[in-house]
């Protein structure tokens, strides 16, 4: 297969195509596309004005809908529990159905095809549609983290980065398909994510993990290829946004061409997957000519312990007492052990204070720009900047935190503290309304909002283990809607409407009654800044409690202990459930295989 013709012949066979679609890297590719289709909740600002004008909502009502959107986006406990007992394809199918049902009802109300629903019913529509994101997150992200546990920061940053780009991707697609029609944007986010989830429903799953010997490095080269492609995608989106703002007569055909190029870049990682699988086939054929060593390894005390634990009763008073006797950090906590721990409490508080504040800024960016006198074009630019820098924060925090953790043992909780501190700068820019500072505020808020997610999810996976990760990471993100409700609805929304009422002669600000000036959001964002600083202080508790844990090798349990050579030479590597040796291992000792349940 050294020549080009031989390679082409191999890659065109059905067997090779099947191998690619069953591979670990194809799961990553499919998950990236799914996540790119799962960020529709971040473009609420683009159609919130249609909700205001068509349905006559005031700012507090819009913020209430925004809260229920955030509630659905972040409360994924149900999807986590479903993932524990059902296959990944079921999780994705449920998400597809909820996304289609929720946003389709919003679209029908906006186009007046159904009677205007009461606020409580519209809130349910928003919550159901947004909750589909938790199912795609759980299905795709958890599968990839379990498939690559030693690169979890990179995996989470990459996948959450595509969610960050999703808002800009949707903007380009709806301009190409429907033109500048915000109501049609709601239709797009109703059917497109559901179609993508269904298309990849059978390819995203947990695969057996191949352990590596001490001294070997995990294969992260494809992840960096995916990173470069995602950077190219983000750069392309930024260039398109600038061009569309600078060229007043950007035609519909130009939008269509731009969207086509966007889709080509989005699917470019498939080439990386094919290349990796071709190299794997080549290495497998070479290894068959030079058979590897057969090494035997005595069962570890941990394995014996796990076998013994399986015989223990799973309920009773002992469960209650064990709930308050958690294992060491990094081991597999039970769900209740994690929920009552100090570490989870700190993460919960940090999510309320940190993510809640940045969510408030993102959801109100259109109204903030309008109140400070920015033109409509600039407001759309703010939304796009948030999306791009949301991506940069997610990818940057994931890759850089993994690099500093591996090289310098720099703890991820301390990186989370730094991000929270930086977000205060963006909040202050909004509070004081410095001329032209909203551009910088959009960049800072977008970056910090994005950076918090991979850090939060990585910390949960590292501190509490992977066994119940699908449920625990959803508990970790469930706190942010509480902060969003208090800061967005009860503080920012009420203060905006009160100032608007004062400007309009003490008449309630309904429909198109808008607030003008710095005072509209000043006091609200001063409060948000103070709350975020409180979150910084609380996060230092987690830094202190995990300092010893992060000084050690947190991935040690994914490495293979030195094995005893039975015959031939030893390459020091144990293949656990490897697909390349699947046929050889059939009928052999099942103790050395890792299935989905054991990984969980």
- Main sheet? 2 strands, parallel
Strand portion = under 5%
Helix/strand class: mainly alpha
- Total of DSSP H or I helical runs spanning 4+ residues: 27
What is the CA-CA span between the terminal residues?
38 Å
**Number of DSSP E strands:** 4
Q: Overall pLDDT, averaged?
A: 81
Helix content: over 70%
User: In what order do the strands lie side by side in the largest sheet?
Assistant: 1-3
Q: Could you name the ranges where pLDDT drops below 50 across 5 or more consecutive residues?
A: 296-314, 562-600
Large-scale geometry: globular
Rg over CA atoms? 25 Å
Question: Care to describe what's here?
Answer:
Helices cover 71% and strands 2% of the residues. The chain has helices at 4-11, 14-21, 24-36, 44-55, 59-74, 77-85, 88-110, 119-147, 152-177, 182-199, 221-246, 252-266, 269-289, 301-310, 317-323, 335-339, 342-363, 365-371, 376-408, 412-432, 437-464, 469-477, 480-503, 522-545, 547-551, 582-585, 596-599; strands spanning 212-213, 294-296, 559-560, 564-567. It is globular, with a radius of gyration of 25 Å. It starts with a helix and ends with a helix. Residues 296-314 and 562-600 have low confidence and may be disordered.
Give a quick set of tags describing it.
single chain; 600 residues; mainly alpha; two-stranded parallel ribbon; two-stranded antiparallel sheet; 4 strands; 71% helix; 2% strand; disordered C terminus
Report a brief summary of the structure:
With 600 residues, the protein is an all-alpha fold. It has helices spanning 4-11, 14-21, 24-36, 44-55, 59-74, 77-85, 88-110, 119-147, 152-177, 182-199, 221-246, 252-266, 269-289, 301-310, 317-323, 335-339, 342-363, 365-371, 376-408, 412-432, 437-464, 469-477, 480-503, 522-545, 547-551, 582-585, 596-599; strands spanning 212-213, 294-296, 559-560, 564-567.
